[in-house]
Write a structure and sequence with these properties.
F-box-like_dom_sf; F-box_dom; single chain; 249 residues; 5-stranded antiparallel beta sheet; 2 domains; 4-stranded antiparallel beta sheet; alpha+beta; At5g39250-like
Length: 249
């Protein structure tokens, strides 16, 4: 059996990564490994049903494998049509029926966030706030205390200065999870998207009360608010695109 015949007998049993590596050995190996029959064998093991079609795909099996064998890299987003300068956020927090926090927060203020955590913040929460992940945070002045024996709820609307329209982010959601190791109380709601985007759903907006121990286990001392959309958006541009798709009224 000739050297070339040995390669042709072995190549059909290789997986895609090994066959691609063989193409880099030398020109002779590359010319042999480029035979689409070998790549059909690879595709037949990965997607057997594709090779059962009476007509072959429009592209070669080699190209088919190249295109779909791994997750594509994320594409760069176009610049968003919104900016935080265009936005203002309306945040209201209640304990039972008592309003304990209510503010109109300009977009740039929420974007700038908490630059320096106040003294007394836990190391874990400080690490979270100073981490590289993109966050929307708001220092609370004056700070307020929340009795954990009471139901605490929050609503968040966002307004556009360019069109004077408003959209809902969170609708009277309850802070029903208190993470005492991370010193955060969390609530969420599912975003309402415009009918122009019928295939987008199931994306949550999260809001957290950032707190310190009060010396009383039944009370949390809130010094800040954090909002994120980590289900789908983790950068400034991604968040702005997400907000632009809301159901603006």
């Amino acid at each position: 059996m000739s050297y070339e015949e040995v390669l042709k007998a072995v190549f059909p049993f290789l997986d895609g990564i090994d066959l691609a590596s063989c193409m880099a050995v030398c020109k002779q190996w590359r010319d042999i490994a480029q035979d689409d029959y070998f790549w059909k064998c690879v595709c037949a093991r990965r997607w057997p049903s594709v090779c059962k079609r009476p007509n072959p795909p429009a592209v070669t099996y080699y190209k088919l494998y190249q295109t779909f064998y791994k997750r594509q890299h994320r594409r760069t987003l176009l610049p968003p049509r919104l900016s935080f300068e265009d936005l203002e956020f309306f945040i209201d927090i209640w304990t039972e029926d008592l309003l304990i926090f209510s503010d109109v927060v300009p977009g740039p203020v929420l974007q700038t966030g908490i630059k320096v955590p106040p003294p007394g913040v836990s190391d874990m929460l400080r690490f979270h706030l100073e981490g590289p992940e993109y966050k929307l945070t708001l220092p609370v002045e004056p700070r307020f205390r929340v009795p954990l024996s009471q139901t605490v709820s929050v609503s968040v609307l966002v307004g556009r200065k360019d069109s004077n329209k408003v959209a809902r982010i969170i609708n009277k959601s309850i802070f029903d999870y208190i993470d005492r190791t991370a010193y955060r109380a969390l609530a969420y709601d599912y975003l309402d998207f415009s009918p122009c985007h019928p295939f987008i759903s199931g994306i949550r907006a999260w809001i957290s009360l950032l707190f310190m121990e009060d010396g009383n286990e039944g009370v949390i001392d809130v010094f800040g608010i954090e909002m994120d959309f980590c289900d789908a958006a983790s950068s400034k541009d991604e968040i702005l695109w997400l907000l632009d798709m809301l159901d603006w009224k």
